[in-house]
């Protein structure tokens, strides 16, 4: 086997590949003439004419009015109208399930959060998800696909998660059996942080031109998705980049996964919640709150200037920073984007993350890596669930339309 | 940008890609007829005839006698004689430099170790390397390339290592400026453990069909090379998969890289050497030995049954095991191959590594991942240095021969 991706060789896959490249060109560059596409992709005008004719016939792209071509000649524009096709994104966290409808550029048309999930209401939640998705599909005929983001480690061939710290009940759900063929449109499942990385890759103007980026999810779980040299790192079973279960202290706190000192045990919202319950004073009534509400109460108190709350946020941020140092040494991305609930702790949190990283990393790497908080309008994992499906739409159009 | 590797598009790159695919087919499958190659690669007979004619003319491949074709028809065989071309591999560790000459299948034709390097003899060592390589090239005209394996983190565009724990002097060497154009043959430089991963990918019959493998180098440094889905993970600057600088204890031992609790501080030969010097009794005279000799003295004592030595080897093995758990959660390879000096500690060492990993990892991952000691005849990083060049030879034949 070569070290480079095997080239598409059969005629069918060559056609699909060229079709995909044309769609991607229109997606990323907007309205373009056939001549511009031919030049950019090094394809013959004849091939462009043939493929775009089929894409127009199938209703995927359309002709616009004249646009300015080279040497001031006018030519007809082609457009992939990214608002015409809609995608459902579903994010599963432990206790949080969110469902959004997005256009192909990740703009949210609707977004809802289902009632808080408990270990004994997982089955009910699954029923509600079926109902809501069926209903959304009936209401909006522009929906062409569903993407789902699930907590890792997600065993992609088996269709289930290998560990869900603090809510083992999700492990019994086989996502493939439960959802993959349940609806009239193609459905794709991805580990949540990997979906978040795709969301930034496709939808975030600040980084989407970068082939090396990481989305660092710090919420009910701690996860990571890495795009390295333009491709997601998956690992053999899909269980790579599980930063939440990398130990930062081999003599530290035990974790449900069997490991000791997992990063997730120090900075996820369940870990924060535990610390607040142990503390007993800082957030009164913490024991009766959800993980998210307890963490948010702490962040609010810190933002109001409470010194003990600030100290706790800074100590959490140091662990998030240790995770960034591990990401530097493990994956050396150009951008780390931190998202999910813990990133709501704001500027003081990011400041402490950065100073921790500066202190503990190799200067050459620190100086060439950006670390920022996610600024996508919807949560990166839920828009990322949509991004998973958008990626498939752009790469394998024949799965969605009769274009051959 | 697409998530899939951009397809070769210009005619020249298509030809080079097909040439490379034919060479790789012959490399991996041995003598084959034109018809067999055409079928395997889905290329037209005309393309095969044209490309192989040029490869024969340039002396890269040759025709053999008749071989048995399909339907018992005889046809002419084509062969890439892997013993006809030689490659020099150079391994730089901190104090160890090895130079080997290999054939294209990684069989060592010669192997030498230079005198132990000290911080103040680095410049002399560089001079000696120039002399030896020049001499080897003069003596053996079959040598077509040189590969070099250097300690990571190696900043591949800059040509230098960012940290070399325990021998900072190597940092001042710019490997690209020093060596890249110094000889009459192409020269390639790679991080040492990544070179080791390539050695196993190309030369190790036990794993070379796997697209997901990791070489875990535990010697003067601790390094990792990961082939994920058929491609090396490099990171933005080439500083990814630096397992030696991933912390296993954020409150632990400080490291030269700025981080605290780096794995390298617990199981590299310099770390073992420090422990033996502190101990003072277990290996008498350890202070006057090289790192390697001190570590080997400990392993010998443990193999002879000394209980204190056994306990120290087991404690080192546990840290190597913690590293494997990090590799599971970070990269989820199918195979982890442990190599370099510390792997000489043998079966008792491997046993403790495995039991540590079983204890601390997710069962689904433990049960689907093999962890073995390297069994390549030469050290994986020095044969890996050659593998780096072999990979280039197979992927970019036009760099080596006039075949266009």
UniProtKB/TrEMBL annotation, chains A, B:
InterPro entries: ArsR-like_HTH, ATPase_NBD, ROK, ROK_cs, WH-like_DNA-bd_sf, WH_DNA-bd_sf. Coiled coil: none annotated. SUPFAM superfamilies: Actin-like ATPase domain, Winged helix' DNA-binding domain. It comes from the Bacteria. It holds the Pfam family HTH_24. Belongs to the ROK (NagC/XylR) family. PANTHER family: BIFUNCTIONAL UDP-N-ACETYLGLUCOSAMINE 2-EPIMERASE_N-ACETYLMANNOSAMINE KINASE, ROK (REPRESSOR, ORF, KINASE) FAMILY. This is NagC family transcriptional regulator.
């Amino acid at each position: 086997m070569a070290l480079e991706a095997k080239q598409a060789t059969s005629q069918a896959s060559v056609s699909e590949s060229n079709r995909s490249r044309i769609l991607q060109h229109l997606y990323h560059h907007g309205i373009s003439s056939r001549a511009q596409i031919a030049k950019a992709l090094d394809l013959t005008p004849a091939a462009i004419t043939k493929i775009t004719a089929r894409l127009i016939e199938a209703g995927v792209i359309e002709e616009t009015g004249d646009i300015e071509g080279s040497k001031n000649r006018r030519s007809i524009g082609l457009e992939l109208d990214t608002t015409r096709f809609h995608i459902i994104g579903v994010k599963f966290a432990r206790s949080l399930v969110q469902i959004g409808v997005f256009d192909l550029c990740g703009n949210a048309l609707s977004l809802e959060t289902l009632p808080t999930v408990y270990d004994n209401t997982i089955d009910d939640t699954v029923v509600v998800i079926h109902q809501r998705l069926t209903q959304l599909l009936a209401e909006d005929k522009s929906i062409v696909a569903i993407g789902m983001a699930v907590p890792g480690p997600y065993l992609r061939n088996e269709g289930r998660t290998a560990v869900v710290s603090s809510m083992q009940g999700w492990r019994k759900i086989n996502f493939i059996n439960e959802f993959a063929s349940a609806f009239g449109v193609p459905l794709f499942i991805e580990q949540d942080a990997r979906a978040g990385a795709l969301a930034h890759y496709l939808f975030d103007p600040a980084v989407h031109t970068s082939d090396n980026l990481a989305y660092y999810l710090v919420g009910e779980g701690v996860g990571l998705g890495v795009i390295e040299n333009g491709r997601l790192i998956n690992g053999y079973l899909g269980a790579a980049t599980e930063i939440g279960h990398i130990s930062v202290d081999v003599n530290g706190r035990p974790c449900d996964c069997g490991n000791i000192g997992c990063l997730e045990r120090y900075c996820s919202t369940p870990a924060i919640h535990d610390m607040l319950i142990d503390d007993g004073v800082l957030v009164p009534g913490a024991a009766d709150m959800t993980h998210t509400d307890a963490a948010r109460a702490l962040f609010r108190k810190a933002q109001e200037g409470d010194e003990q709350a600030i100290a706790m946020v800074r100590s959490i941020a140091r662990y998030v920073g240790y995770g960034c140092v591990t990401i530097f040494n493990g994956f050396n991305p150009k951008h780390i984007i931190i998202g999910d609930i813990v990133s709501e702790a704001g500027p003081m949190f990011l400041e402490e993350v950065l100073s921790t990283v500066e202190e503990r990393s190799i200067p050459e790497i620190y100086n060439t890596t950006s670390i920022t908080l996610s600024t996508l309008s919807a949560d990166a994992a839920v828009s990322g669930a949509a991004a998973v499906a958008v990626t498939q739409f752009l790469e394998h159009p024949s799965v969605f339309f009769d274009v051959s």
